[in-house]
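Researcher: I'd like a structural prediction for the single chain below. Treat it as a standalone chain; there are no partners to consider.
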Amino acid sequence: MQPIQLFNLASRQAEWLTIRQEVVAGNIANANTPKYHAKDITPFQAVLDQSDVSMARTDPAHLSGNDLSTKNDIDIKDAALDQEIGVQESGNTVGLAEELSKSGEIKRQYELNTSLIGSFNRMMLMTVKS
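Model: Treating it as a single chain, here is the predicted structure.
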């Protein structure tokens, strides 16, 4: 029997979301710090691209292979410059509206992640009871 990769994938995404939330919270906390440059992390797609979880593809648009074993594939880097705010007079590049939007997106992704895992867990429990 092969191990179920869904739990590993969901765990890895939850870890990625946690790190991203920490970075976004740091950006918000430093919104008034002179010369502070907003940060972001490697997109989750890049994490998936470096992994080797083999999933069946029934459509070319579906996921290919993935490995979730390393944590070294999440990098914190300077965020792309927001063209709307640009570099402020203080040298700061944090746009509060953008950071709050990122925070809401992270919350929605985390809720989806936990909801899917809960549903999958209930489905597995139902098959065991049968």
